[in-house]
Amino acid sequence: MSARKRVLILCTGNSCRSQMAEGVLRHYGGDLYEVESAGSAPSRVHPLAIRVMKEIGIDISGHRSKHLKEFEGQRFDTVVTVCDNADRTCPAFPGGTQRLHWPFPDPPHAEPAAAEAVVEEFRKVRDLIHARFREAARSGFGSAGR
After folding, report:
1. How do the pLDDT tens digits run along the chain, 146 residues long?
2. Phi, psi values for residue 124, rounded to 5°
3. What's residue 31's pLDDT?
4. Domain boundaries, the chain
5. Strand partners, 78
6. What are the two backbone dihedrals, phi and then psi, of residue 81, each rounded to the nearest 5 degrees?
């Protein structure tokens, strides 16, 4: 049995914010956490999310967008919602699951060849997620509030 804590990160589309958060937490806390992400209406991992994460040395190109139904009935130590819709629709999980809501702005969902302004919005969201989840990896979610 794994001694790592199980963490599930939820967002509606599981294409940007939750994928970036999963990548950051795996990068900084891979020995401590078993990390998954999912969404209530999954689509695909957004190419710009992959691009901006690669810029900081975190490769999420192998991630896939998953439906939260894949995780129904499973036990998680912590469930983090990163958008308000996911927070409202998050199902209950068995056991003493810690629920956290850390909303981040939704970057514009333009295509990879989009204007530099769109790429910059992805970078801003990435940096916010990076800071929050890097700290959570280091603190063990101990000082994390709702």
Report:
1. 458 899 999 999 999 999 999 999 999 998 899 999 999 999 999 999 999 999 999 999 999 999 999 998 899 999 999 998 888 887 777 777 899 999 999 987 655 556 888 899 999 999 999 999 999 999 888 654 44
2. -60, -45
3. 87
4. 5-137
5. 7, 98
6. -95, 135
> Following DSSP, what letter does each residue of the chain receive, concatenated?
---SEEEEEE-SSSSSHHHHHHHHHHHHHTTTEEEEEEBSS-----HHHHHHHHHTT---TT----BGGGGTT---SEEEE-SHHHHHHPPP-SSS-EEEE---PPPP---TT--HHHHHHHHHHHHHHHHHHHHHHHHTTTT---
- Fold for the domain defined by 5-137: Rossmann fold (3.40.50)
Q: Which residues are catalytic?
A: 11, 83, 90
d(CA 47, CA 57) in angstroms, rounded, equals 15
Tokens of 49: 């999310």
